[in-house]
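Hey everyone, long-time lurker, first post.

I ran two proteins through the pipeline my lab uses and got sequence/structure pairs for each. Pasting them in order. The first:
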Amino acid sequence: MHFRGFKHFVGFGLLTLLIVGLAGCRSGSSDSKTTSSTTSSKKVTRTATKPKKSPYADWKTVKTVKLPILMYHSISSGNALKVPATEFKAEMAYLKQQHYRTLTTTEAVYALSHHRIPQQKIVWVTLDDSYTDNKTAAWPILKANHQHATINFITGFATHPNHLTLADAQKMAASGVIDFQSHTVRHLDLNELSYADQLKELTESKRWLDQNLHQKTPVICYPAGRANAATTRAAKKAGYKYALSTAPGIATSETDPYNLTRQRVTPGMSLETFAGLLK
């Protein structure tokens, strides 16, 4: 073979090897991408989160829910509507020692409407009129005991002296220890108002709470417990699911949802008498 022919032959061979090599690199790169994609897919599958467990998954169904609803107002001293902080502290301590679960409004509504309870001993603690001492006296006690209470808020009193402000309500609600329900706008005797005026009181207070506390307020507490047939119609029209009265007795799932009975706690009450309110 001539030298020139030999050079052509070698050149052609090198070119062939180069082409084959490049093809192999491309194939390897494609395989690498495929493997990476498959691995990534497997990782996504492995880290997929499970559906959240319902907060009521472990609640038990019962024929009739019996729910004592305790009624407080001011946590201070002075008259029949004021329970001193020392007594409130002792009463909350009793509930804790006796293993009562203090329900949130959401839990109470669920229990009554679904005939289900988280445990046998349950109680719903409510405070009417949104006094400032609910924040300064009651709230610290509830936080220390890891208990919950509902404050029935008079929305038109948010700028009045000795009453909780919107900022107070927002801060307390954010703690998870307190929730707020409606006690109307002006705390008037509803049974003395026209249907239109009742509806306005109930609707405007609910709207205020819904918008400012970012919630759907399900409960109205009648001022002084005064209501009539028009009040019930107005409560339903406004979008409430339950209503609290001041009539005594243990509320149950069989009770009229727009006339739930409550147990009034008064100053000077012995723990024995207090215990009787729960049964």
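...and the second, right after it:
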Amino acid sequence: MRESFDRIVVGAGLRGLLALWVAVWVIGFERPRRSPGAIAALALRTVAAWTLLPLTLYLLCYIPYYAAHAPALYWHYFTLSPPSLVAGVRFSMEQKIAIAQALEAAGIDTIEAGFPVSSPGEAEAVRAVARAVQHAEVAALARCVDGDVAAAAAAIAEAAHPVIHVFIATSDRHLERKLKIDRTSVIRAIGNAVRTARRHAAVVEFSAEDATRADEIFVRQCVATAIEAGATRVNIPDTVGWATPDEYAERIAGVVRFVADSSIIVSAHCHNDLGMATANS
């Protein structure tokens, strides 16, 4: 599309330059014989016209075109969820609502309101945020477990724009030491969770937890399974702040190339354990 647009602009610019050159040439010879200084000035004006006209035309045409076709950047605000995962740290329902409304006013696209299965109070807080937010998406976090997905779906049932965000570990270290399951079980869990989530929400995000320490081919298998099951977004988290900017950029780019579907959003999620979160983002 960009190449076609450039050809159109170049063609129009050349036609405009030809017309201008002819006009300047005719005007120059219709007037009485000019002095050497006048001829030099005319030559300079002609050169300037040849140089500036295509640049001006390109900018006037391309800037609006680029504004309409530039890649979109979406903001998924996650910080309301982690407190429910950390002992002794919690936002009250009122605090969550106030933060969510401020985020909506700031133009955040997706507000992740919490982890409903973690407690009845957390589930009620997510429901309250879902009712309070009218324009932004409201997401609920869930592991790839039936009970988690059911709790998330119930909590965001009243949201104007609901999102269910499911996640599961993908690194062998997490599978062996935390979940104590194999890769086949992970693939099965992803498919089941995403299919269940899609029955409750049109937008489902899948996160491959600890993706930067996982086998890259296996992460792509997880992503493919999630998309096939109905996920509309895939997230590649640097869960323990392990990656460097070059490494993380290549991971994200690799997933984008693998997905090769502009309707699927590929997102980043960075941690600051080694002070690299901003650079990685």
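Reply from user beta_strand_b:
Welcome! Quick read of the second one: The first strand starts at residue 76 and ends at 77. The chain is about 55% helix and 15% strand.
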